[in-house]
């Protein structure tokens, strides 16, 4: 279920934020000690370009760009800094706030960055030009949380007085305001990356049983609270955390789909923490929601059924932040005990949390704990010695010394071309060059095949989605597959067999970006 792998303890103040890179290989943390740190998730070691030091006061938030090349950090020094993840170089210092910056978040396409501040404003920045697009004021309270909708067209703002607001990204105008979303203030918010909200009659079906939404919606009051879908399928599922000890789920209807109106409907309340909830994050497949609390625990929830899956303990002070890796293998948590903890998550074949797995907590006071290595090390992580050993396995050990002299490690090998082999490594025979390149391609293909997350596959065709769309049942399908399904006269959900309320298909841009990024990094084009 959840096994602790590392305890990372380089920070000397509270850990305030954490996030994973798009390829799940780098973990970033930020702290009250004015630094941000980068960690190699496979080894648990801090990367050579870390720590990142430029802020004058505590760093409150950090986030990777969805394309994985930039890290943004937000600080009480009123600045947001953009960093090159690979070199640790400061790319830009974004100045415009007059108060401490509490939070920051990238748009799904990495074009924009939003930052929220104690000066009761939020700013939208153009990432490529490093320029301020607009600053929206009159929020009337500290902005503690901000996030783009999955289509990147709106932003949701959560404030210290408990309000939620939706703004248009390009115009900056207020689309919807909800007062007192959390009695004592909103601390965090997160969108499900893959699931739309359920319709009025159906939430999710499993084992052939159709479950009524009203049966799944516990509230803090007695009885159940029905979902108001206003006669149409909702588009997005939002989770918010608050100082009222609660996590709340909301159906977000935007003006870009299903309805001309933009509104927020309460879906359910997740009540389980004994103290303020400081952060919440969805897993990549949307089936798990993690919440971090002042009560020193992290709770893992099933957001569709509104039930607790597991409670993680181990931190000795309040847990300030949490983050899932994009490949869903890891959960990172940060705390006021000045440590980061990395947990290995066990999932079922369906992508749910494996509640039958044995939970272990290793007792170790060392900075890092040994990680169970994967069966095969990724090509990009090979050392020079491992490259030379690989040459022996393909019968070309005579070139080992040339590779060693040129310091060809896995990262270099993965980008090797025939011209480089001829001109730089001095491998003359065409057959030998081709054999090396074929072997490299075979390794890459095997890595891709072994690491395609199930949520990238269309539920109908079981092939990688090239144009994912959200249907009225809230699930994502490849456009060609679901259109063929509908044209055949089948007006039921492929996942649940429940009737589809309508045939509207909304592009799932966030999922498409995630899939393209996954295959782009693997140098494997989508079919």
Q: What are the defining features of this structure?
A:
single chain, 527 residues, mainly beta, Methylamine Dehydrogenase, Chain H, DNA polymerase, domain 1, Herpes Virus-1, 3 domains, four-stranded antiparallel sheet, 33 strands, 34% strand, globular, disordered C terminus
Could you please describe the fold and organization of this structure?
With 527 residues, this protein is mainly beta. The protein has three domains: 2-197 and 232-355, Methylamine Dehydrogenase, Chain H (7 Propeller), CATH 2.130.10; 379-447, Orthogonal Bundle (DNA polymerase, domain 1); 454-521, Zinc/RING finger domain, C3HC4 (zinc finger) (Herpes Virus-1, 2-Layer Sandwich), CATH 3.30.40. 13% of the residues lie in helices and 34% in strands. The chain has helices at residues 384-393, 400-405, 410-414, 418-423, 430-450, 479-487, 509-521; strands spanning 2-8, 15-20, 26-31, 35-40, 52-53, 59-64, 70-75, 79-84, 90-95, 101-106, 112-117, 122-126, 131-136, 143-148, 154-159, 164-168, 174-178, 186-191, 205-206, 209-210, 236-242, 246-253, 263-271, 277-282, 289-293, 298-302, 307-312, 319-324, 330-335, 340-345, 468-470, 476-478, 506-507. A hairpin with a 5-residue loop joins strand 10 (101-106) and strand 11 (112-117). The longest helix has 21 residues, at 430-450. It is globular, with a radius of gyration of 24 Å. The two termini are 34 Å apart. Mean pLDDT is 83; it is low at 197-234, 356-375 and 521-527.
On the 0 to 100 scale, the average pLDDT is 83
Which consecutive residue ranges, at least 5 long each, have pLDDT under 50?
197-234, 356-375, 521-527
The name of the CATH architecture of the largest domain is 7 Propeller
Q: What spatial form do the alpha-carbon principal axes imply?
A: globular
Say which CATH homologous superfamily of the largest domain is assigned. YVTN repeat-like/Quinoprotein amine dehydrogenase
Largest sheet: spatial strand order: 1-30-29-28
Largest sheet report: 4 strands, antiparallel
Strand fraction equals 25-35%
Number of individual domains: 3
Structural class: mainly beta
CATH topology of the largest domain: Methylamine Dehydrogenase, Chain H
What's the total number of strands?
33
Number of helices: 7
Under CATH at level 1, the class of the largest domain stands as Mainly Beta
Residue share in helix: 10-25%
- The radius of gyration is 24 Å
Query: What separation lies between the terminal Cα atoms?
Result: 34 Å
Keywords: Repeat, WD repeat
Protein name: WD repeat, SAM and U-box domain-containing protein 1
InterPro entries: SAM (IPR001660), SAM/pointed_sf (IPR013761), Ubox_domain (IPR003613), WD-SAM-U-box (IPR052085), WD40/YVTN_repeat-like_dom_sf (IPR015943), WD40_PAC1 (IPR020472), WD40_repeat_CS (IPR019775), WD40_repeat_dom_sf (IPR036322)
GO biological process, one term: protein ubiquitination
């Amino acid at each position: 279920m959840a096994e602790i792998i590392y305890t990372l303890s380089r920070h000397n103040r509270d850990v305030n934020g954490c996030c994973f890179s798009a390829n799940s290989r780098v973990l970033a943390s930020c702290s009250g000690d004015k630094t941000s740190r980068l960690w190699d998730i496979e080894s648990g070691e801090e990367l050579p370009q870390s720590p990142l030091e430029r802020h004058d006061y505590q760093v409150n938030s950090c986030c990777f760009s969805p394309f994985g090349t930039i890290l943004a950090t937000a600080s009480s020094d009123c600045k947001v800094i953009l960093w090159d993840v690979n070199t640790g170089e400061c790319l830009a210092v974004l100045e415009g706030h007059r108060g401490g910056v509490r939070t920051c978040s990238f748009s799904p396409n990495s074009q924009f960055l939003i930052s929220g501040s104690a000066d009761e404003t939020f700013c939208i920045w153009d990432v490529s030009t490093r320029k301020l697009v607009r600053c929206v004021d009159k929020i009337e309270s500290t902005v503690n949380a901000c996030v783009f909708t999955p289509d990147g067209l709106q932003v949701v703002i959560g404030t210290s007085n408990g309000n939620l607001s939706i703004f248009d990204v390009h115009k900056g105008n207020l689309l919807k305001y909800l007062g007192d979303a959390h009695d004592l203030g909103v601390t965090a918010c997160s969108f499900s990356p893959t699931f739309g909200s359920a319709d009025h009659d159906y939430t999710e079906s499993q084992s052939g049983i159709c479950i009524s939404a009203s049966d799944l919606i516990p509230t803090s009051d007695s009885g159940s609270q029905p979902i108001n879908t206003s006669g149409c399928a909702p588009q997005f599922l939002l989770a918010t955390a608050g100082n009222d000890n609660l996590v709340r789920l909301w159906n977000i209807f935007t003006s870009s789909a299903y309805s001309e109106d933009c509104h927020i409907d309460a879906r359910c309340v997740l009540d389980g923490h004994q103290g303020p909830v400081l952060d919440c994050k969805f897993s990549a497949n949307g089936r798990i929601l993690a919440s971090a609390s002042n009560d020193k625990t992290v709770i893992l929830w099933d957001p569709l059924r509104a039930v607790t899956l597991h409670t993680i303990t181990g931190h000795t002070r309040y847990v300030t932040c949490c983050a899932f890796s994009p490949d869903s293998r890891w959960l990172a948590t940060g705390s006021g005990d000045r440590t980061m903890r990395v947990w290995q998550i066990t999932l079922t074949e369906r992508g749910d949390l494996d509640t039958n797995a044995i939970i272990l907590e290793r007792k170790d006071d060392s900075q890092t704990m040994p990680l169970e290595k994967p069966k095969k090390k990724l090509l990009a992580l090979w050392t020079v010695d491992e490259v030379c050993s690989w040459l022996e396995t393909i019968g070309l050990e005579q070139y080992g010394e040339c590779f060693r002299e040129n310091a060809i490690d896995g990262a270099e090998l993965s980008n090797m071309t025939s011209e480089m082999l001829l001109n730089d490594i001095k491998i003359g025979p065409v057959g030998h060059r081709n054999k090396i390149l074929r072997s490299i391609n075979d390794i890459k293909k095997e890595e891709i095949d072994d690491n395609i997350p199930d949520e990238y596959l269309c539920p109908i065709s079981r092939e990688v989605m090239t144009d994912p769309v959200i249907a009225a049942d809230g699930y994502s399908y490849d456009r060609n597959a679901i259109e063929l399904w509908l044209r055949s006269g089948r007006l039921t959900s492929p996942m649940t067999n429940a009737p589809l309320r309508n045939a509207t298909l909304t592009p799932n841009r966030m999922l498409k970006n995630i899939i393209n990024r996954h295959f782009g990094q693997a140098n494997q084009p989508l079919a």
